[in-house]
Amino acid sequence: MSELDITSIDPNFNANEAFGRDDVIMRNCREEPFTVHGVFWSEGNFRRMPKTVAERVSQRVLYLHNHTAGGRVRFVTDSPFVAISCAVPSKYHMAHFAFTGSAGFDLYADNEYVKTFVPKLNYSDGYQSLITVLGERKKRTFMIDFPLYSQVSELFIGLSPDAVLEKAPDYRYSLPAVFYGSSITQGGCASRPGTCYQAPLSRHFDLDYINLGFSGNAKGEDAMIEYLASLPTSLFFLDYDHNAPTVEHLDATHEKLFLAFRKTHPETPVIMMSRPKAILTDEEVKRRAVVETTYKNALAKGDKNVYFLDGAALTALCGNEGTVDNCHPTDFGFASMAKALIELIERENIIK
What's the CA gap between 174 and 351, in Å, rounded? Predict the structure, then answer.
């Protein structure tokens, strides 16, 4: 039997490259009343941090800083459908990472998952997709999550011509949380953007956030430390154990980073995490000890806004079954991480 396109067998796999209708009014997501969070547009691309800062950190962070992990656009509408037309000039096909996670957009309505805008595997520099919103036609707060491992230069949102369009309510907390860490922090290998561990945490607490995960390249560089210490934030997550080249490098930078942040944020809660892994090698045990030492030193100095979450606690729900490669979490692994963090934040009343 000759090879067939799977969409000819099951139309549910069709990524809907064309809308097939003429009643879609497109609007630029950078214009009001849309609000963009977690990323900002500059020099032709959405970015997670200023280009000038990324240049000072490293060439690889410069490359990764315009991956749109953590990016979101929010709005209120009663449109019976939501469409997107996006310019996504970069794409990466990875054996262990769903394309919907690295290059897709997720649609949420009132914090409930609706569907994913699925990219075609062979798109050139962008794609279009439309999602029908089921149920009663009424105003809902919509959120579109940006891709985790792709560059996005433009995003247009399509609604019905007669639809209401209003600004989404503000997040409950005026300052965003900031996450600094590795490829796991960036979102690898979530099956879609809305399942990386920060996303359910954000939805649960109605908390804005900035994802500063840099795949393979979160190393606590001086320029990055300076930038992290400058950011207004309500809650800081420190999670770069995986990317420190050696135990010695982690030891030389981890407490240094924390102290620099604490100098400019004396009261901001800080959550330190060791790598989310159930069974550790001898070297990984030493890395965990470095992170825990920073935490214990802070406690000894009377710091009452610092917390440590061991990697074993992060994997309590999934055990050793939550990754694709004994490193990068699946959605199950990310759900386990989110659950542990939510429980910690609620138990310790970390954010008021």
Answer: 12
Say what the pTM is.
0.94
pLDDT at 188: 96
Strands 306-309 and 270-273: parallel
- Collect all residues with Cβ–Cβ distance below 8 Å to 252 and sequence separation of at least 6: none
Task: Dihedral sign for Cα 300, 294, 222, 52, please.
Answer: negative
Q: Report whether the peptide linkage leading into residue 232 is cis, meaning its omega lies within 30 degrees of zero.
A: no
Cα 251 to Cα 43, 161, 269: the distances in Å are 37, 57, 21
Phi then psi dihedrals of residue 299, to 5 deg: -60, -40
CB-based burial, 51-71: b 16+ in 10 Å, e otherwise? eebbebbbeebbebbbbbbbb
Radius of gyration of the chain (CA): 20
Beta bridge partners of 42: 45
**Distance between CA atoms of 314 and 318, rounded to whole angstroms?**
9
Residue 175 phi, psi (nearest 5): -105, 145
273, 291 Cβ separation under 8 angstroms: yes
Q: Nearest 5 degrees, angle CA 143-CA 216-CA 314?
A: 65
Q: What is the DSSP string of 221-277?
A: -HHHHHHHHHS--SEEEEE-GGG-SSHHHHHHHHHHHHHHHHHH-SSS-EEEE----
pLDDT of 278 above 90: no
b or e along 113-123 (b: 16 or more beta carbons within 10 Å of the residue's beta carbon)?
A: ebbbbbbbeeb
Task: Give the type of residue at 276.
Answer: P
Average pLDDT, the chain: 94
Nearest residue to 73 via CA among 180, 205, 165: 165
Q: Which two tokens stand for residue 279?
A: 């069974």
Strands 209-213 and 177-181: parallel
pLDDT band at residue 5, thresholds of 50, 70 and 90? low
pLDDT per position as a tens digit, 92-126 = 888 899 999 999 999 999 999 999 999 988 888 89
Q: Residues 120, 153: contact at Cβ < 8 Å?
A: no
